[in-house]
Please model this.
Amino acid sequence: MIPLPPPEPNDAGSPSLPGPRALDTSVSSHLALDSIPDRLFSIVVTRRGGFTLASAGPARGASGRGNADPGPEASAATSGPATVAPGRQYVTAKRIDFAASTTDTTFADPVEMMFYLDPNGVTEERTGGKPTPGTVSAQQSVRFLAASKQVLLDGDCAVILLRSEPNLAYQHTLAAPRLTLDLVSDPNATRPIAVRACRFAAGGGPVALRIFKRGAGKLLGWTTLQAAELQYGEDPQEFTAVGPGEIWIYNAQAAHASADPNRFSLDRPCYAHITNFDTLKYSASANRIVAEHRARQLLLDYFPLTDGGWSRQVQVVAGHVEASLLEVVAGRVELGALTASQGIHYTDEKYDFVGSVLFYDRSRDLVTVRGDEVLPCKLNNALVDEIEMNLQTGRIRAPVSTPSILQVQR
Model:
């Protein structure tokens, strides 16, 4: 006969509680408390059905979700297990290991937790924003290291954050095989106590970041990033993606009726695509993006949409790109300037530019291409000194080495 495993402590058939002589009060062989091995302080708690740990008392100050449905993934950030009231912070796991000497804690097999995140930082919320509900999950384990104030997630990790504005709802999802978070919190903060991610590193395999924007029950746009690694540091406030990687940006409708269809604008219906980058850095404090590819094959595509169809696709190939973002009104960011260098190739439905460097200036609605001795400037394969294209009028100005000037009208 196969022996049955001993009953769980919480099972109905568990043995009775230990008697008064169960505790051994004999003198310990250890001369001092600090001479006792750390392993003897460890506490391991298990339960066949798993655990749900939740905060006591009503949750206060949860951020609203607006009128939009943030999608099926987002529901976990506010609902949680059936035994936990919506909006309450919780942790679910099948196993909990706690080291009393260090207060390090490990949750395992699988783990999900809900907490409130200080939005000032990774979600670009303005200072003073309400705490943002977030869900963290890992299929293998989540470890809290007290001394370093780090959280280590392992195995199909995901972090989902929800953020709302009047009539808009945003969902941020970060997925990776492995994730390390450096957290800080304000012990004097009002409830719910929100933590802030001052640093994080996602890696161990493909990393994906997805941001969805919804309003009035509709998907209004999204941004996705895929890379080998993604890192964030609070000082300076900078994201770094290590390639090979790519970014897709989609906007379903113009945020304002005055959006100019002639500009390289993310404020109009469009797709934008950046691929082949080796590294891409985004500085939230400086509103600046820097991307590069060592083989000079960094690819930028811009696909504007007009009346539901494609219109004037623009493509730029370069080795190095720097873009400055401009907040034209509160909460709305546009491309203010762009510099593509280390060899460029620009193409659209009519023109083909080749040169050493390309400049885009939003304030002047002007694209300028210049060459050098290694990469001379060419317009539709004709050698010119430089190229200027006015995006408003469509006029091309391209001086040549002779006194004449080549001018082309769209």
In short: The radius of gyration is 28 Å.
